[in-house]
Amino acid sequence: MTGYDSTDLRRAAAAAIRAPSLHNSQPWLFRLRDGAIEVLVDPERSLPATDPDGWAAQIACGAAVLNARLALAAAGSPATTTVRPDRGDPHLVARLWPAPARRPSYAEEGLFAAVPRRRSNRQPFSSAAVPADVRSDLVAAAREEGGWLELLVGMTALSAVVEIVTAADRVLQRDDRYQAELSEWARVVDAPDGVPVTAAAPATEPHDLLPQRAYGDRSRAPGRDFEPEPLVAVLGVRGDTPTDRIVAGQALQRVLLTATAAGLASSMISQPIEVPAARDRLRRALGRYGTPQMLIRVGYGGPGRPTPRRALDDVLVGGSG
């Protein structure tokens, strides 16, 4: 195969836009250039109060890269991926070049099938434990993309991290600019982006272990409390450069898709990553080499409510093909 074409571009982008992003801001663009598919950060969809240095946008675009890779592999046209191939273009996240054609692996087919089913479930999960072999699969998924995953099982492991998450959430609640930006992305009417109130978590109550981001004020149904000992995973990578964050986004998405394929629900907790002091406390509490990039709550729950996506043509930009 000499190069990708517009059909490949649309196939890759259609899967890529199903990636998660902070506030469902969808900060990505895709273009075909010289037979390669490029993923870019969309600077017009930045979050200046929540994400001043671009961490969340880079994580989201990294997750989009993983989805695009899976779509191309599933079609028998796998990609060789270069992260940040042009340091002179800060918006260029990755370039996907055609690799030799081959049949997709069972793992690629399974993860690609999970792409449209993966969504953030901000509702309570059941108290059923995630089996040890599935937990091992999640750890292996992060490792395969160059990341690490620390699973916090039981209250002994959770207690210190819960304190850090709660403290970070309090800091953010006191930030008027942050709260105003969050409100801007909460949707009460149909929109192609943002978080619909129907997909938001129920309002936090005093006995909840982990704080929820307030996209709405929906009360929970009676008896629908959050699980008393949630399985929380901390995902990290070696450092915190833009390249590290794009790697982390790919690792995050492989973990989320692995969880989806195993019948698990998941949601992300990023408050302690958004507050530098809390992030440093988290790193020291874990005692791991590297930088935490995301927390993930994993368990058994319903399918979750989908969040909208922009039309495909709105995320494609011109290039030389």
What is the gist of this entry?
The protein is an alpha+beta fold. It is built from 9 helices and 11 strands. Helices cover 36% and strands 17% of the residues.
Please outline the helices and strands:
Elements lengths: L5 H11 L11 E6 L2 E6 L13 H20 L4 E5 L8 E7 L7 H9 L17 H13 L3 E5 L2 H19 L2 H10 E2 L7 E2 L34 E7 L4 H20 L3 E5 L1 H4 L1 H11 L4 E9 L16 E2 L4
Parallel strand pairs: 1-11, 6-7
Antiparallel strand pairs: 1-2, 2-4, 3-4, 5-8, 8-10, 9-10
Helix pairs in contact: 1-2, 2-3, 2-7, 3-7, 4-7, 5-9
The unreliable regions are none
Q: What's the number of helices?
A: 9
User: What is the CATH third-level topology name of the largest domain?
Assistant: NADH Oxidase
Number of domains: 2
For the largest beta-sheet, the strand count, sense and barrel status come to: 5 strands, mixed
**The CATH homologous superfamily of the largest domain:** NADH Oxidase
Proportion of residues in β-strands: 15-25%
CA-atom Rg in angstroms: 19 Å
Instruction: Give me the secondary-structure category.
Output: alpha+beta
How do the helices and strands follow one another from N- to C-terminus?
HEEHEEHHEHHEEEHEHHEE
Report the end-to-end length measured between terminal Cα atoms. 15 Å
Q: Quote the average pLDDT.
A: 92
How much helical structure, as a percent, in the residues? 25-40%
Instruction: Tell me what the CATH architecture of the largest domain is.
Output: 3-Layer(aba) Sandwich
